[in-house]
Amino acid sequence: MELYSIIKKPLVTEKSTRDREDANTYAFEVDRRATKIEIRSAVEKIFKVKVLDVRTMNMMGKKKRLGRTMGRRNDWKKAVVTVAPGGSIEIFQGV
Q1: CATH class given for the domain over 3-85
Q2: Measuring CA to CA, which of 1, 53, 76, 83 is 20 to 30 A from 44?
Q3: Closest Cα partner for 25 from 79, 94, 91, 95?
Q4: E-assigned strands of 1-95?
């Protein structure tokens, strides 16, 4: 897989912001087929940081209703990446 197709976008929520400040962890939405090893190498090469740990979760899409019809959002995969002390990812700065 290509590096930029593995990491889709950063997740900026209240919980991820708190975790970033407290535990130096960053959350990303990643490709559903990506493995932990691929995610680790992509983050290390794109952001030039040392990754200590990668945790992944498969997030189920929520059920949504539009009038009489029921729909469903797509399933997606979340990765929480722990970066070595002293390292940081610049795209999250100032958020």
Answers
A1: alpha beta
A2: 76
A3: 79
A4: 7-10, 25-30, 51-59, 63-66, 69-72, 76-83
